[in-house]
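Our preliminary data section would be incomplete without showing what the modeling component actually yields. Below, a chain of 332 amino acids is followed by its predicted structure, encoded as tokens that our downstream tools consume directly.
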Amino acid sequence: MFKKYIPHPTKREFFAMILLFAELILFSVFVPNFLSVDNIIRVIQNNAEVAIISIGMTIVMLMGGIDLSVGAVMGVVAVVTGTMIEKQMNTILVILVAAGIGTLVGAINGLIIAKLHIPDMLATLATGNIWKAVIFGLLGGKWLTSLKPQFAAVTTGRILGIPILLLLVIAVYALFYYIFMYRKLGRYIYAIGNNENAALLSGINVSYVRIMSYCITGALAGLTGLLYISRMRSVEMTIGTTTAIQCIAAVTIGGIGAKGSGSRGSVIGTLAGVFFIGFLRNGIVIMGIPSLLENFFIGLFMVICVLIDSLNAMRQTKIAAGEKDVQDGGAA
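Predicted structure:
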């Protein structure tokens, strides 16, 4: 009964996986021990925050939106919870505060976009700048350093030799894969992205789903703030500066265009995009290539993927127009 909810895997998702495997093979040829267990674990640890936030970005972009405030939200939560950890406050309370702040900020974004009809790019750019100012105000120009490893078990621990952080990422992706594939919320997200007016006419509360999507994105950004301070044990003024663009790049390379893809795209493609960028950055650093080229290559692959999406859209439009002409000719 659930099969009707499941979108078919797209060529773009397979393309993202092919890119990832080709990248791994290429770097393994030129970089000794590139595929060693230690290096793979290092890449997973360094990209866990982006991987988790990218799930929220996937939801938002599937519906044709975008969220530029995720890095600032992660930063605000990291500062607040880092201060709470300094004061040795209860662990459960710290987690609840992290999720609560993220959800609240996401709800604000969602309400501004869904109820006030302000474009998502402008709304989240504005709120992101507000939260950056909050970070500066809370830190007072200083860093939080030497934080106690209250969640170190999550970022450095292992179960049967498998990093707990990897298991956490897998668990979060499995949860949202289930939501996308088998729950009404997932079906509504795809329906809105495919045709918002049709979704509205079919009885879907589009505003509610859109607000929920930003709440989820905010909550994920908040929880990754905890992961960040657990891994780094410090909070700097520039925290989260590049997080949004990394998430957008991962989602775009993973198969979802900047204007949304409606019935195509999934968290599987997003995960492939995240690790493609993660291993790309890792390989560039190991090979001693100037870091400026890192952004060049990421931008280049984003352009290539968007170009592929545009060409596919043009081809599908021509096919649909041809079929309509045939039907009109038959009717005549």
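Confidence is low (pLDDT under 50) at residues 1-6. The two ends are 40 Å apart (CA to CA). Preliminary results of this kind motivate Aim 1 of the renewal.
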